[in-house]
Amino acid sequence: xxxxxxxxxxxxxxxxxxxxxxLVASNLTIEALAHALQMDPRTxxxxxxxxxxxxxxxxxxxxxKLLHADPYLLWPELGSRxxxxxxxRDEIMSWYPNRGGVPAEVWGRVLEDxxxxxxxxxxxxxxxxxxxxxxxxxxxxxxxxxxxxxxxxPDPGAAATQSEATRxxxxxxxxxxxxxxxxxxxxxxxxxxxxxxxxxxxxxxxxKVDGTxxxxxxxxxxxxxxxxxxxxxxxxxLDHVFGTAMPTLAPRRTEGVRL
Length: 259
Prior knowledge:
The protein is 42% helix and 15% strand. By secondary structure, it is α+β, with helices and mostly antiparallel strands. It is elongated.
């Protein structure tokens, strides 16, 4: 047997064979996986080649999702971390300098993958209807598949000007077809600290910065792990929003309204 072949076999047997098999099954290269995770390919290569090499928990879960695999099968040692409390660093899947920096497929993927619950609390919903093709259709399908969907939009009655109130009514009109869909509840809120899109354990949090337009503020992509010290704060905020918001009982069509 040639020495090069023997060395290669030794490398495979001494590395993470399950991870390698998952890469092959998913038809992904090391470079493609690293790019999707926004990491150096050499790091992914070390996961494959070095026995005992294990990624951070957030990277393991993100990689496993891309590979359609169980992270605890790819890295059995992760099981020993289950009892430990995840730190805030483990919960951060990614971050973006502004809303426009979030790839459109991220918004769509987190919503389309939700099976249990979707919570959307926004100071304006226009950007989300642009980012997710057929947003209302996606939310309707998720609700009909069993997910609980709650949407909180700004109360036009609390707007500072008539033009702002009219704009908010037009935003509501974009979501009007969701009224009456089983599993969907619509609300009006009087103001929120941060815009949040929550889909099961995943949250996209738009962090407000004083004096900065919402579109220019940074975005955190979070994954709830364990007791989730970071994510729990935003989930508590969502509970407050929906606990204090007023249900919207019927849509108010605004065709013909001129700004």
